[in-house]
Amino acid sequence: EYDGDRNADGERHGYGKARLPNGDTYEGEYERGLRSGRGTYRFKSGALYTGSYLRNKKHGKGIFFYPDGSKYSGDWVDDQRQGHGEYTYANGDTYTGEWFNHKRHGQGIYVYKDSGSKYVGRWVNGIQEGPAEIIHLNHRFLGRFFNGKPLGRGKYVFDFGCEQHGEYIQLEQEKGEEEEEEEVPLPVEPVEPTWKAIEITRLTPWTPQDEKSPSP
């Protein structure tokens, strides 16, 4: 069913409301028969998208509300989360940063709601990977991540004025599964490799480039 503007060729063009055969509904702008411009799409499942469209695909700025209570607000390209955006998970965790091809990719910040801890660093295809910092209530870890876990040399910095240098040792890596449409929050207490302390020193400046990259 469609109620709205049409062009001289009879195509949906301008502003209109539509009910699709699968029970979904759309209200917004059309261009030559296709959803293009601003609009709101309500899924029969309870999900909702409001934002920009281009030729029937989410493209530009938009907000997607998922059935599990999670929400994504940010950039879309060709129906994919891509660019910069914020995802609020069903458990209250948040990720703010770069996206590519529907996954966390690039630089971003993940905040764990329950503990208040946050991961600030690089992501590759939805997984923590590269130089990063984990900030806890009264201390923080600086190092590198590989396949979602800390690996290689790094250090813990404590608020009372010292730091512990060492390295994470991991015997085997396990690849995660492909992500579903709804983003899955990260584990609150991820399984981590073994930390091997080397020395305790006064506070020193540090950048990820100071430590050698671990060999996979």
Automatic annotation (TrEMBL):
Region (Disordered): 1-31
GO cellular component terms listed in the entry, alphabetical order: motile cilium; nucleus
Main location: cytoplasm
Gene Ontology BP term (one): axoneme assembly
Matching Gene3D superfamilies: Histone H3 K4-specific methyltransferase SET7/9 N-terminal domain
Function: Functions as part of axonemal radial spoke complexes that play an important part in the motility of sperm and cilia.
Record-given protein name: Radial spoke head 1 homolog
